[in-house]
Amino acid sequence: MEKKEFRVLMKHYFLMKKSAADTKKWLDESYPDSAPGEATIRKWFAKFRTGHMCTEDDERSGRPKDAVTDENVKKIHKIILNDRKVKLLEIADTLKISKERVGHIIHEYLDMRKLCAKWVPRELTIDQKQQRIDDSEQCLELLHQNRTDFFCRYITMDET
To answer: Which pTM was predicted?
Structure first.
């Protein structure tokens, strides 16, 4: 059960004039693995007593996180595809967002990691898989058009 759901239950118990101890006992019996601690219950009952009856999270100060947008994800992806050796700081300077946010986007949204100083995808994306299919179909079409010319152009051997 989520924190908000527990707050709603505690609010109902508070409105039923139950004590924090009774509420704790009932929650422990009903939700033995996930019930909040006694200190949390007492803190919420104190808030309810002072008239703070809202069960939603309060607004938090600070700037909203606006760096992780679809537009920035696409821009970062394009930058990396153009230059696999690009540095986080260079991308951050280009897009005017923090280095940490760029790293977060690369790792979490693009699912890439740095390997031998190059950004590489962990797995092929749907676009990359489709590109491989298209390339393979083109090669197959060339093979059907002129088999001998195809093998002369595409099969290579070493000098031994």
So the answer is: 0.39
